[in-house]
Amino acid sequence: MKAEYEDNKKKLPENSVIASKLSKVPDLKKYMKKVMPFAEHRKQMFAEFGESVFNETSAFSERDVLNENIAYLMSTLDLEGLDIEFSDAAEERIQDETCPGEPFIVFRVDPS
For the whole model, what pTM was predicted? Predict the structure, then answer.
């Protein structure tokens, strides 16, 4: 999207243009059902945050923020434990759903 934005005189192109370009990327073929909702979400974020939405990484360590607030999260959510893990260690379904700035949460119940 960043290249299209720059080629379009610093304006985001229409969704049809984005869809056409992204459908030609071989690595995205199996994700096409999710690509356009993701692109639309990025367009909405662009309206609020500007060009920073094109960054591929977060401006801060999301893991550090969660770790610094682990006691609060456990207390507020009434949890006995909380594991914070990188998405690349997770199953494929979780990796497919995760993107910068939007952590994926998995709740589990361990046998007692």
Answer: 0.54
